[in-house]
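Researcher: I'm comparing several assemblies side by side, and this is the next one on my list. It has 501 residues spread over three chains. Same procedure as the others: predict the full complex and return the structure.
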Amino acid sequence: MKRANEPVFWSLFGAGGVLSALLGPILILITGIIVPTGTGMPPDAMAYPRVLALAQSWCGKAALLAVISLFLWHAVHRIYHSLHDLGIHAGAGAAAVCYGFALVATLATAYLLLIIGF
Amino acid sequence: MSARKPYVRPMAGWWRRNPVFMRYMVREASAVFLAIYAVSLLVGVFRLSQGAAAYDAWLAALRNPLAIFFHGIALLAVGYHAYTWWKVMPKTLPMLHVGGRRIPEITLSAVGWAAWLAASLIVYALVRGL
Amino acid sequence: MADAEKTIEIEVLRYRPEQDREPVVQTYQVPFTDDTSVLQGLQYIKDYLDGTVSFRWSCRMAICGSCGMMIDGKPKLSCKTFLREYYPGKLRVEALSHFPIERDLVVGIDDFIGKLESIKPYIIPREARTLEQGEYLQTPAQRDQYEQFSSCINCLLCYAACPQYGLNPGFIGPAALALLHRYNADSRDEGWEARREVVNAEDGVWRCMLVGYCSEVCPKAVDPAHAINQNKVNSTLDYFGVLKFLLPKGAAK
């Protein structure tokens, strides 16, 4: 029987799933609703100097990379497998697009965080 | 000569035939909203790397009512993901016992939901600057 | 007399390979009381209304696993489902989903039987045990790791519930994987090596998307979803070469 290479992607899916199941809702609430509408948070919560300082710290870089990257590894895994559920016979090509997207996004985020400096 | 002629029923539209399957598809669809959100964060990091003006433009885009509406839907979708994630998490663990009794799955899920609440409060406090 | 006899409308999805190109619904009016099961309703149809209706049944008490069918679109044992639940509406009875229909409510289950054999459903000890060694000793906690998975009656409701099996008939499936886990999790068994190819395959645990419906419909609370997803972790640890350090005394070949 054909052995699956699923464990690699499932591990990333799981890590992203845990992270988004802990932080997903609150991050969406804060960055997408609370801060833009100016309710329940000081207006400079996401101001440039503050967020730049975060992105220039090692902790901040790790956090931003983890959130963006793992959220995407989780999402693409689910999306890829859902194609099959919808009757779309997704093969290696679709897998390459989905997982490739997460990989490119991970590398791009890492690169951006590096050039943002310290 | 066999008189057998097995009939295979088509799977098309399978998930519309049962509310359990509908909820499963909603859960899976939450990934689309999570992906879009992560990409928007990536765009934010990109704008951050381009300087204050570019970053402020990204912030302004988040204030667009359509963006706020999207995040509202995304909040529901990812909230549903978070709820179902901890609901099924015990299925990946072996049977756990305390004092000779099995720990029920709902207890393990409750630990997950509690962790979600704690993490949310901590993040809120950190962002607020408390 | 307590109450006049009620009748309920039962729609049966018929399929006679010698005359039907595709399945067709046939409707029957069936008298019933509070304790009439769907199976008894079908038996009434066969005995008094239409002797050509075909269906499997045996024990009438939810232990043989023969009478699984789709009742109003949900996989159930017909002996354990009661007509009173659907009255005054009607109910539709169809063959178990995701299996080819042989005739009326009878499905072909050869695929499942083959899968059951493939998972090696027997204790595989590292070495054969002699009589002088005495019996195996097992604590209640050790037994709890596998006991519920040994309750499977092979009724196949879980396969009818599993859309992944419907979409990928190669999937080993809930009941077979639950039974596989029943043996792997038994402290007397050291057969991980013998079964790992099935576990680790694409059609093994990795076809499962944790829809979870299998565990919902199981009449014996086997919880196959638990067996399968616990083994996604095991399969992952095995993939990265770490599992062998966690298995109690090494695994039997």
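Model: For your comparison table: The first helix of chain C runs from residue 38 to 49.
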